[in-house]
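Technical annex, item 7. During the second reporting period the consortium partners agreed on a shared format for inverse folding records so that results from different sites could be compared directly. Each record opens with the tokenized structure and is followed by the designed sequence. A conforming record, contributed by the partner at site C, is shown below for reference.
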């Protein structure tokens, strides 16, 4: 095929592409004339070309964008094309970028050296331009370019050259260290020279952007003890490992003492990974350092891959969980709606559970506090009651003796005794009230809230009313209508928390009407048995003549932390806890408006109805066999 025909065939095979889909090529060419010629030729065939003049500049450009393919001249100033290709192959980010090597020379072994360094193809610059284009397209067809282009946005800035730190070179050894630094720079590494150990910042080892990959230490320097310094470096490496990083490698330069008995053993014992004599060939030294760096970078890559694997496993598990929750949905819209509903439900349950835990902890603390206070009051109260009876008996005896005396010695003295007797009787009334209060507190502090047991309903309700008596005052009258059996198999929380919260809220609602003028409040508490489809239920009703609950708030009244009370007057947890307790009984709780009065006018107020299953057989079993708490149907 002639040159014109082949060029036309190449153009027809793949026409020039426009827009972001054009393959991105990085051209590395130091000659401006050659670069212009090659660039025009490639752009005419639909490639987007970026040109740099050196291998170092090419590596630096990879921080900005990963190209689809690299076209490089082998003979470059400083780092040659083979060394640049070797750097690309050392990084996981650029390892799969195809490299096409160009050269004008025909030196024997040049193609072999280029391919061994990591190039994918070797083409002379004097070759037909169509051949170069065909080779580029063949390399791009392998798919590496498309793969990297798709992931380039996520991998920007991940490529870096290996970092070499050389410690030493002060005095007579300066020339050797300078030559070594130049050799490493020509090989594409970033090289830093620290003539003294104290000039090295050890904190860099813990920062990914500045940590060295290999530390070359002059072990025979006249300025410092190389072996001792390597021990310090090894200690720092252990800290890097503990911090979760990959420690750098240490290579020791040993003058003429390498591999000689005691010195070699001391060096490796101090933490040196490799030991090289000064008389080694520069190429061999570069290979030794390259091997250490390669192991370090491979460890970095293995660590990154492991982190990505763990992230993928977590993502897979998350995806499986999400897929399981929406597997029954027929469409994507329904699945999304279901997922949102589940998330909202989980959040609601979390808030509700948190509120219940807070309320439970408060009730437990309150119960312990109440029990402790009742106990502390009961002891001195029993002492006072016992001695009060003694005082009353003695006082009655003195009064009786004086009454038998026909002529009392002193009428004033007799009057004082009678007054003392009246005061003792008054004290007796007060002490008995305190005794009843202590008894109610002790009943309330029995915090077996989660245990099912037989509860005496009227007694428990009277205990609740006694504890709320101060809130009722003289403005609120409590009416009782107990029609259901006295004994109910339930949790004590049903009465100590649920009904107490409902009755307390009713009192608060009535008292909130005091701004409109004095009004006589009423709270009616009733119990009864009702028949239903699921069987008989034990029903509690609490009705008040307060202001009532607006219709738009009834649906939210059982939400945790929702309250209509002023700030600081309520937590919004009382009815949420009540709802949970009733649910634990497999019962229901509902809110309705109070019935109209006899003349048909709206009476105002609210009726709370709590229904729980009526299970008299369990109550009988609990009485006869002492059923352990919590074993219920």
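Designed sequence (site C submission):
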């Amino acid at each position: 095929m002639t040159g014109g025909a082949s060029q036309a065939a190449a153009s027809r095979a793949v026409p020039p592409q426009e827009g972001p889909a054009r393959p991105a090529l990085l051209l590395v060419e130091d000659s401006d004339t050659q670069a212009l010629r090659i660039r025009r030729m490639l752009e005419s065939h639909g490639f987007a070309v970026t040109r740099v003049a050196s291998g170092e500049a090419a590596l630096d450009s990879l921080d900005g964008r990963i190209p689809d393919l690299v076209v490089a001249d082998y003979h470059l100033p400083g780092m040659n094309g083979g060394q640049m290709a070797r750097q690309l192959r050392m990084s996981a980010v650029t390892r799969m970028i195809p490299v096409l090597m160009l050269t004008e020379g025909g030196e024997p072994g040049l193609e072999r050296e280029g391919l061994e360094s990591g190039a994918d193809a070797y083409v002379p610059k004097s070759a037909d331009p169509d051949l170069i284009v065909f080779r580029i397209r063949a390399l791009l067809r392998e798919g590496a370019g498309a793969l990297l282009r798709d992931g380039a946005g996520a991998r920007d800035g991940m490529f870096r050259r290996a970092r070499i730190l050389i410690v030493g070179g002060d005095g007579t050894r300066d020339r050797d260290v300078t030559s070594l630094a130049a050799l490493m720079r020509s090989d594409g590494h970033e090289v830093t020279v620290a003539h003294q150990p104290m000039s090295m910042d050890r904190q860099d080892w813990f920062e990914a952007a500045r940590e060295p990959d290999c530390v070359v230490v002059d072990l025979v320097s006249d300025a410092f003890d190389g072996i001792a310094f390597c021990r310090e470096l090894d200690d720092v490496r252990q800290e890097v490992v503990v911090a979760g990083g990959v420690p750098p490698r240490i290579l020791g330069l040993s003058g003429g003492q390498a591999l000689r008995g005691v010195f070699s053993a001391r060096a490796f014992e101090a933490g040196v990974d490799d030991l090289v004599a000064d008389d080694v060939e520069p190429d061999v030294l570069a290979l030794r350092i390259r091997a250490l760096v390669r192991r370090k970078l491979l460890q970095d890559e293995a660590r990154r891959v492991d982190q990505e694997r763990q992230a993928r496993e977590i993502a897979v598990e998350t995806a499986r969980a999400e897929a399981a929750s929406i597997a029954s949905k027929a469409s994507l819209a329904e699945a999304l709606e279901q997922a949102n509903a589940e998330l909202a439900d989980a959040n609601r349950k979390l808030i509700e559970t948190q509120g219940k835990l807070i309320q439970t902890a408060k009730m437990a603390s309150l119960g312990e506090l109440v029990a402790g206070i009742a106990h502390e009051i009961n002891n001195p109260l029993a002492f006072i009651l016992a001695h009060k009876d003694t005082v009353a008996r003695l006082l009655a005896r003195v009064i009786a003796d004086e009454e038998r005396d026909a002529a009392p010695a002193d009428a004033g003295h007799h009057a004082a005794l009678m007054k003392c007797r009246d005061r003792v009787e008054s004290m007796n009334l007060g002490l008995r009230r305190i005794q009843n209060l202590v008894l109610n507190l002790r009943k309330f502090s029995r915090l077996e809230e989660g245990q099912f047991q037989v509860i005496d309903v009227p007694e428990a309700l009277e205990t609740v009313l006694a504890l709320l008596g101060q809130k009722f005052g003289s403005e609120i009258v409590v009416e009782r209508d107990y029609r259901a059996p006295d004994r109910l198999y339930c949790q004590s929380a049903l009465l100590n928390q649920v009904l107490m919260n409902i009755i307390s809220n009713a009192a608060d609602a009535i008292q909130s009407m005091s701004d409109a003028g004095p009004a006589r409040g009423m709270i009616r508490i009733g119990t009864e048995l009702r028949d239903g489809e699921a069987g008989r239920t034990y029903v509690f009703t609490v009705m008040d003549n307060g202001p009532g609950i607006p219709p738009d708030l009834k649906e939210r009244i059982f939400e945790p932390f929702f309250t209509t009370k002023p700030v600081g007057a309520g937590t919004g947890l009382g009815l949420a806890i009540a709802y949970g307790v009733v649910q634990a009984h497999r019962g229901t709780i509902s809110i309705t408006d109070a019935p109209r009065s006899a003349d048909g006018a709206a009476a105002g107020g609210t009726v709370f109805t709590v229904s729980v299953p009526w299970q008299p057989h369990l109550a009988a079993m609990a009485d006869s066999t002492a059923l352990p708490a919590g074993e219920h149907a």
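The domain at 21-143 is CATH 3.40.50.2300 (Rossmann fold). The first strand starts at residue 24 and ends at 28. All partners now use this format for quarterly exchanges.
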